[in-house]
Amino acid sequence: MKKWLRGLAPLIVLPLIFSACSNEEGEETIEVAEVTRSIFYAPLYIAIEEGYFADENIDIDLTTTWGGDTTMTALLSDSADVALVGSETSIYVHAQDPSDSVINFGALTETDGTFLVSREPMPDFTWEDLEGSSYLGQRAGGMPQMAGEYVLRQNGIDPYTDVELDQSVDFANIASAFASGSGDFVQLFEPNATEFEEEGIGHIVASFGEESGTLPYTSFITKESMMEENEDALVRFNRAIYKAQQFVENESPEAVAASITPYFDETPEDLIATVVERYRSQGSYAQNPYINEEGWYHLQDIMEESGELPQRIDYEDLVDTTITEQALE
């Protein structure tokens, strides 16, 4: 059992105390824990800023919980109603046979969102260039690391013998560790990757999203009991997300950037637009909240290859499409 799952086990049996409630304006508040703050999650911020949640009589209380373990802990301990996190976490929790299952009910992203960044310019980069290098990786068992390992193996690189893999740095500090001189290569989310490129700290040489295929990489997850007791709120939630997904798909990157700028105080608006276009062009943003069934099984293939899959789970067991079906009627 993974170390962070050992820490989660006692939380699963806590009594249910839902935080979803109505505020003074009559809106229903839904507390959302996001695994990190990233332009990768642009549709969520769009849904808030463009008033799509408000149109559905929902007020979002958004907290960044920095890492899959802390995000799932927030959901299991009733500190959040909805977790925005990798779908692999739902498989880990399910393997413990919890009394209140966690269910994936909406897709936000459908590819890996990280990029391979080198310390030196490498205009003619090939994957063989990684051999013998120091590689600053992500947390073991997390989707970024597993997708990264999958891509390396697909390109003939063994992540544990061909590179010097360093996984000692906490998720929230990986970018700063690389900026401070750790690693020849690093796997980074945006906007860090593009910021580093513009500042000359690093250079984007490959996209893990392009290389690893369609995945339920970041999904909206909630407890089964929440779905039973607050189904209508979740339907309205997904309807708002869908409107935001269409905004991201159809509006200009500049329009998306202008809307989500408040979530990235230290990132220039033109850089946000560049990142939005990069993610959109590689199909990272899901165009609707349906979780791809083929991608669900591809996710488990990647987990199994990394030695992290506790058991195979059927799509219907942990993915609920009825919320989205009602939202898009």
UniProtKB/TrEMBL annotation:
InterPro entries: SsuA/THI5. GO terms for cellular component: periplasmic space. It comes from the Bacteria. The keyword Thylakoid does not apply. It is found in: Periplasm. Its main location: periplasm. Keywords: Signal. The keyword Ribonucleoprotein does not apply. Residues 1-22 form the signal peptide. Residues 42-250 form the SsuA/THI5-like domain. Pfam families: NMT1. Belongs to the bacterial solute-binding protein SsuA/TauA family. This is NitT/TauT family transport system substrate-binding protein. It comes from Geomicrobium halophilum.
